[in-house]
Design a protein that fits this description.
By secondary structure, this protein is of the alpha+beta class. The protein contains 25 helices and 26 strands. The longest helix has 23 residues. The relative contact order is 0.04.
């Protein structure tokens, strides 16, 4: 055709090169030796090398690492195989390599013979970075999920497990007889359909909860359950939630191991409701159970009973053998009490050496009596403590529902009163509560309330009784005796109220008041010109054990300005036997103040000669009971003689109290008693009367 352009081979080649340069993909041509024969503009832009820098160079120069697979694929293409696609990483003239989608096609001459290869490359670096980031994110997420202590599984809308974490798998293989039923590809709802064995109800409830979350009835569901083995106890909290977001329904199931929490709760409950030493129910749990027993007894019109127990002489055992031995004894007592009762009964420890037994159903009073007798017999059996055989016993008070009380507090109070009556009647016995006891308790409460106000109302007074030297007949000392001018009951002697003061702790402030008043009065008499005499003041057990006793006496002596030589402190024989080491230490501190010390009521306790030798005692006071039996009891006569001889051998003076007759006076003088005190010379009299007596000296 005239005027038309003819496409020559050179023009065709030029056109093809122009077309390749405009192609958005990198195009690289290789000859049969794998040397670059073409390099388009896209290749220049992607790799950063100009065509002039690459033409004629081996293709391998531009790969990050020579890849055998890529070389093999390329050889196949150069040999004429069809197109081959591959993802490879190639170098650039920049610091970072790039990822490309590599597509190679054979180049052929006019005869169809392969003369090279044409490689098209698409930069997929960004996509590969995203893919690697996603893979890393999934790997990281999986690692996090596998690191979770919770057992985690994901199920689909059919209940099939599609994923589990490591904790789930480990638990399944460690604790399940068929772990494969709890792994991917199995139906979790089927695994919950257990029909026998432990956990049937929990499994059924759990399956129902999963279905409720699946159908949208519940947003989430949780359930605590136990999974115990012969060797271990485990508790778990299962939680079911719907997976958030769009897409197919997914349910997330987690199981938290709450064993430590449950064990801690059990430990807290144990501490809150059980005695740590004996493991018996404590006061809190006792009150709860007793309340339930009384409510049931009321509904069913039954009788119930409680036994209030207090061990006899426990303090003596505890002080003599030590607290460890005392604790061991309490444990043995707890075991024996449990052996004496039925499974439906409750044995509780109130504290110290006090116990309570609750009997929920007692048709006959004889049933309670049999239990009480069984307990008494059991506790009188000897106990081995630190290699020493010890005998103990208990006093039991019994209160009945509804006869003695209709509520918890009333019954315990009545049983407590009955227990004290058992103590008073000789111990190692039991007593049922009676109305008479209640009346006595009310009188006790009235006395206690009055005693609490006696000091502030100035109702307490001191009386004084002389102590006389037998050889000279002169007054050598004074004993102070406390009196309570009760507004309703009149003048009360110490025997009427001091035991109450001791039990309530009021003896400490009362004893301090007595000591102060005695020192004040003695100093006042001396300042009035009367002859100086020692004044004797009794110390009770609580006073002797009070941690500030020495400081209190020191302060009173300083404040009253009485010289310590004119103060004598009397303590009973039993007080010095509880803990001889501590007693010696305390008495030496008192002696260092300059006061004199006396043992009152001597002969009624169980002092050993070895103990007496250790004590810095100035006087022994023979108890008045021996003098009362002087004419009729040979034993009393022998005891008095022995005490006088023993005291003198120890370098200690002897004073006899309760002397009332010439016979008693003469006997004491004949056998060398140093001083006497009693009605023979004078009764205890108020201050003014005793002052008149002093003026006659």
């Amino acid at each position: 055709m005239t005027g038309s352009a003819t496409l020559t081979p050179d023009k065709l080649h030029s056109t093809l090169l122009s077309l390749l340069d405009s192609w958005p993909l990198a195009v690289v041509g290789l000859d049969l030796d794998e040397k670059i024969i073409s390099w388009n503009r896209a290749a220049e832009q992607i790799f950063g090398w100009a065509a002039a820098e690459t033409i004629g160079r081996p293709n391998s120069d531009f790969q990050q690492e020579p890849d055998p697979n890529t070389r093999r694929y390329l050889k196949r293409v150069l040999a004429g195989d069809p197109q081959v696609n591959k993802e490879v990483r190639l170098l650039t003239n920049r610091t970072q390599p790039i990822d490309v989608n590599w597509s190679a096609t054979p180049l052929r001459d006019s005869t169809g013979k392969p003369v090279g290869a044409l490689i098209l490359m698409e930069d997929i670096t960004t996509r590969k970075m995203l893919e690697r980031a996603q893979i890393e994110s999934e790997r990281f997420s999986r690692a996090i999920v596998d690191a979770l202590p919770q057992h985690l599984a994901i199920i689909d809308e059919t209940g099939t497990i599609i994923a589990v974490n490591k904790a789930w798998r480990d638990f399944a293989f460690a604790n399940s007889e068929q772990p494969e039923k709890l792994c991917e590809g199995t139906n979790y709802l089927d695994a919950c359909n257990v029909t026998t064995g432990d956990g049937v109800q929990e499994a059924e409830a759990y399956a129902q909860g999963i279905r409720a979350v699946m159908n949208g009835t519940l947003i989430e569901f949780s359930l605590e359950y136990s999974c115990h083995s012969p060797d271990h106890q485990h508790w778990y909290n299962g939680r079911v939630t719907r997976f958030p977001g769009e897409g197919p329904l997914r349910i997330v199931i987690t199981h938290d191991n709450i064993t430590e929490l449950k064990l801690a709760e059990k430990a807290i409950q144990q501490l809150a409701h059980y005695d740590t030493l004996t493991q018996l129910p404590n006061r809190m749990l006792l009150l709860d159970r007793l309340g339930q027993v009384l409510a049931k007894a009321k509904r069913e019109r039954q009788r119930a009973a409680i036994l209030f127990l207090d061990l006899d002489r426990f303090k003596l055992i505890n002080d003599s053998l030590g607290h460890a031995a005392g604790d061991k004894l309490l444990k043995i007592v707890a075991e024996r009490l449990n052996d004496c009762v039925r499974k439906s009964d409750t044995v509780a420890r109130l504290g110290g050496d006090e116990f309570i037994i609750v009997l929920p159903s007692v048709p006959q009073t004889e049933d309670v009596t049999l239990i009480a007798q069984k307990v008494l017999h059991s506790l009188t059996r000897p106990v081995d403590l630190e290699g020493q055989e010890v005998f103990t016993s208990t006093s039991i008070g019994i209160a009945m529902y509804p006869a003695d009380g209709r509520d918890v507090d009333s019954l315990i109070r009545c049983a407590d009163m009955a227990m004290y009556r058992a103590k008073e009647t000789g111990r190692n016995t039991y007593q049922f509560f009676s109305a008479e006891m209640n009346q006595q308790m009310m009188q006790r409460l009235v006395m206690e309330n009055g005693l609490r106000h006696a000091l502030e109302r100035d109702e307490l007074h001191l009386h004084y009784q002389e102590q006389t030297d037998l050889a000279s007949g002169k007054i050598t000392g004074i004993e102070v005796l406390l009196r309570w001018q009760h507004p309703e009951l009149g003048l009360l002697a110490p025997a009427d109220f001091l035991h109450l003061a001791e039990e309530t702790g009021l003896i400490v402030p009362i004893g301090e008041w007595v000591l102060r008043m005695a020192c004040t009065q003695n100093q006042a008499w001396q300042e009035a010109g009367l002859p100086p005499l020692r004044i004797a003041v009794n110390l009770s057990e609580r006073q002797l054990n009070h941690y500030r006793l020495v400081d209190t006496i020191t302060r009173i002596l300083n404040e009253t300005q009485l010289s310590p030589q004119w103060l004598e402190l009397e303590l009973t024989e039993n007080l010095i036997n509880n803990n001889i080491h501590d007693t010696v230490e305390l008495l030496q501190k008192l002696k260092s103040l300059g006061v004199s010390l006396a043992i009152d009521d001597f002969g009624t306790g169980f002092s050993s000669l070895r103990n007496l030798k250790q004590l810095p005692i100035d006087r022994l006071k023979i108890d008045h009971s021996f003098l009362q039996d002087l004419g009729s009891s040979a034993n009393s006569t022998a005891i008095i003689k022995t005490i006088i001889a023993m005291a003198h051998n120890l370098g200690t003076r002897v004073i006899a109290e309760g002397v009332e007759t010439n016979q008693q006076r003469d006997f004491l003088q004949e056998h060398g008693c140093d001083e006497i005190q009693g009605y023979y010379f004078s009764r205890p009299v108020p201050r003014d009367e005793f002052c008149k007596l002093l003026k006659t000296i």
